[in-house]
Design brief:
alpha+beta, 2 domains, seven-stranded mixed sheet, 8 helices, 34% helix
C-alpha cells in the first residue's frame, strides 16, 4: 500500500492530465449560426478552459460535451487524442472557408502560412473584383472570442496583413514572434515582382505582441527589398523583448 504522499501525487497527476486534454469546438455553420458560436468554431480548448468559459456546459460523455452558449445552441465540444501538430491550421482553414482565396494580389487582404491569399474583395457578396473592399479587421469574424484585437491576434497566428494598392504600392504587417514561412516569403516576392519597376513602394510594420516596433518603406521596389525585409524580421525575431525595445526605441 502506498503512502499518503504517493496517493496525493497520483491524484495531482490525474488532475493535470485531465486539465491538459484538448477538445475542439464544432459549430453548425448555416444561416442560423450566431456570431459568438462562429468565432468559437474549430478552436482548441482544454478541459480547464472549457469549464471556465461555458457556465451551462453539459457533458454527454467523456468525449462529447455541449457548451450551451445560448438557448437552442447546437454546438459540440469533441475530445481529441492529441492537439493538432500544426495548431493554427484549423484557424487558417476556417479563414479560407469564410472568405475564400484569390490569386489576384489586388484582392488580397492576408497571406496565410501556406502562401495562399484570403480574398478580401467581397466580390462574392456583390463587391467589385480586382480590388480589396473588405477591411482587415473583418478577420475578426473567424478569430476566437476573447482573443483580443483581431488583426493583432491573426498576425500572431502567422498571418501577414497585406494590401496591394491602386498604383502598385504594397503594404505588409507581420508579427516577429510568428513563424513566417517560406511559402509566405515566396508570395511576397511574387507580389513585388508583379509591381517592380512601376515607381511604387513597399511599406511595412514589424510588430511585437500587438506593438509596432519597426516601420519603414522602400521606394521603387525590387526583389532585393523582400530580402531586406526578411533580414529585418529575422534580426528582430532573434532578439528578446527588451533587446527589441532598446534597439528600436532607445529605451
Amino acid at each position: 500500500m502506498g503512502s499518503p504522499q504517493e496517493a496525493v501525487q497520483i491524484v495531482n497527476a490525474v488532475i493535470i492530465s485531465e486539465a491538459m486534454q484538448f477538445f475542439r469546438y464544432y459549430a453548425i455553420m448555416d444561416d442560423r449560426t450566431c456570431q459568438q458560436c462562429n468565432r468559437y468554431d474549430m478552436s482548441h480548448m482544454t478541459r480547464t478552459e472549457i469549464q471556465g468559459t461555458f457556465p451551462y456546459l453539459e457533458k454527454q460523455s467523456d468525449y462529447v460535451w455541449f457548451p450551451r452558449v445560448h438557448p437552442n445552441c447546437r454546438c459540440e465540444l469533441r475530445w481529441e487524442e492529441e492537439q493538432e501538430k500544426e495548431p493554427h491550421r484549423a484557424l487558417m482553414n476556417k479563414a479560407k472557408k469564410h472568405f475564400g482565396t484569390t490569386e489576384d494580389f489586388r484582392e488580397a487582404g492576408w497571406i496565410l502560412p501556406d502562401g495562399s491569399m484570403l480574398d478580401f474583395s467581397g466580390k462574392n457578396e456583390g463587391g467589385t473584383p480586382g480590388q480589396r473592399m473588405r477591411d482587415h479587421t473583418e478577420i475578426g469574424f473567424i478569430t476566437p472570442a476573447g482573443s483580443g484585437p483581431q488583426i493583432d491576434y491573426f498576425e500572431g497566428q502567422g498571418g501577414i496583413r497585406f494590401s496591394n494598392m491602386d498604383r502598385g504600392d504594397l503594404a505588409v504587417s507581420l508579427d516577429v514572434n510568428a513563424d513566417i514561412t517560406a511559402a509566405q516569403w515566396a508570395t511576397l516576392k511574387n507580389a513585388v515582382r508583379r509591381n517592380s519597376g512601376s515607381g511604387s513602394y513597399l511599406a511595412f510594420d514589424l510588430d511585437d505582441n500587438h506593438r509596432v516596433i519597426h516601420s519603414d518603406y522602400y521606394k521603387n521596389i525590387s526583389m532585393y527589398d523582400v530580402y531586406r525585409l526578411k533580414k529585418d524580421y529575422e534580426k528582430l525575431k532573434a532578439m528578446d523583448h527588451d533587446e527589441r525595445t532598446r534597439a528600436y526605441w532607445g529605451k
